[in-house]
C-alpha cells in the first residue's frame, strides 16, 4: 500500500489513494463549501420571500388615484402619479392619511416634505415594484422616508446597502447621518470601520469639519476607539 508523504497514515477505505488526514481535510473543505452555498441560497430565498410578501399583500379596493409632490419642487412642481390603493397597502402612515377625511384624502394631493423629487419618484416606484437602484445619497433619503412612512422592506433594503458599501471615504459621513436619525445597525457598522482607520481619517477634511461642527460626536468616536484599543490590549 502507498503511504502519503505528508502524514504517513493510510485511510483503509481509500487504500492506495489517500491517507486519512488528507481525506478528512478534503471532506472538511467540501462541507464548508456546502455550508457557504446553503447560507447564500437561504439568504437569497429570504430576500425573495420578503419581496414577494411585500408585493402580494391584499390591496383595498376603496381608493382612487392620487398625486404626490416633492418638497423641493415649490416653484415648478412635478407630479408623481400613484394609486391610493397601492400607497395605502404598502404604508400604514399613508393609509391613515388616505383612509380618513384628511385634506390629502379629500384633495387627492399629497405634499411630501423634506425630500427630493428623485427620491420621491424612487420611493413610489419601490412601492409598486419592490426594486430600486441605489447610490449613497438616494439610500440615505429613502431610508429616512421608509422610517417616516413605515415601509419596513425598503428600510431593510437601504440599511443593508449602506452597511455593505461602507468604506474609508464615506464612513464618517455615514456615521454622522445614521447618528442623526438613530439607525443603530449603520452606527455600529460605521464605528467599526472608523475605529479601524483612525490614523487615516484624522488627516481628512471631513474629520476637521466634524471636529468643528460636532465635537461631541467626535468624542463618542474616540470613546469607542479607546474602548476597542483597551479590549485588544487585554488579549495581548
Automatic annotation (TrEMBL):
GO BP of this protein? proteasome-mediated ubiquitin-dependent protein catabolic process; regulation of proteolysis
GO CC annotations, alphabetized:
cytoplasm
InterPro entries, per the entry: BTB/POZ_dom, SKP1/BTB/POZ_sf
Q: Which residues form the signal peptide?
A: none
Quote the PROSITE patterns the UniProt record gives: BTB
BTB domain boundaries:
64-136
Which Gene Ontology molecular-function terms are recorded? ubiquitin protein ligase binding
The pathway is:
Protein modification; protein ubiquitination
Q: What is this protein called?
A: BTB domain-containing protein
Q: Which organism is it from?
A: Prunus persica
Amino acid at each position: 500500500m502507498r503511504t502519503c508523504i505528508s502524514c504517513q497514515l493510510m485511510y483503509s477505505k481509500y487504500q492506495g489513494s489517500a491517507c486519512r488526514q488528507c481525506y478528512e481535510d478534503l471532506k472538511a473543505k467540501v462541507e464548508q463549501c456546502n455550508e457557504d452555498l446553503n447560507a447564500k441560497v437561504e439568504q437569497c430565498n429570504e430576500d425573495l420571500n420578503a419581496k414577494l410578501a411585500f408585493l402580494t399583500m391584499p390591496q383595498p379596493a376603496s381608493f382612487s388615484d392620487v398625486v404626490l409632490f416633492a418638497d423641493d419642487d415649490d416653484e415648478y412642481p412635478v407630479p408623481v402619479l400613484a394609486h391610493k390603493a397601492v400607497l395605502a397597502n404598502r404604508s400604514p402612515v399613508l393609509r391613515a392619511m388616505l383612509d380618513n377625511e384628511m385634506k390629502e384624502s379629500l384633495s387627492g394631493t399629497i405634499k411630501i416634505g423634506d425630500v427630493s423629487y428623485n427620491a420621491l419618484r424612487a420611493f413610489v416606484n419601490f412601492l409598486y415594484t419592490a426594486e430600486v437602484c441605489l447610490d449613497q445619497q438616494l439610500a440615505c433619503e429613502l431610508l429616512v422616508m421608509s422610517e417616516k412612512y413605515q415601509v419596513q422592506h425598503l428600510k431593510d433594503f437601504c440599511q443593508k446597502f449602506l452597511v455593505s458599501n461602507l468604506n474609508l471615504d464615506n464612513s464618517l459621513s455615514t456615521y454622522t447621518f445614521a447618528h442623526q436619525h438613530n439607525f443603530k445597525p449603520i452606527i455600529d457598522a460605521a464605528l467599526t470601520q472608523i475605529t479601524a482607520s483612525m490614523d487615516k481619517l484624522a488627516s481628512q477634511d471631513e474629520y476637521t469639519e466634524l471636529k468643528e461642527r460636532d465635537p461631541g460626536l467626535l468624542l463618542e468616536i474616540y470613546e469607542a476607539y479607546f474602548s476597542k484599543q483597551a479590549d485588544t490590549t487585554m488579549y495581548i
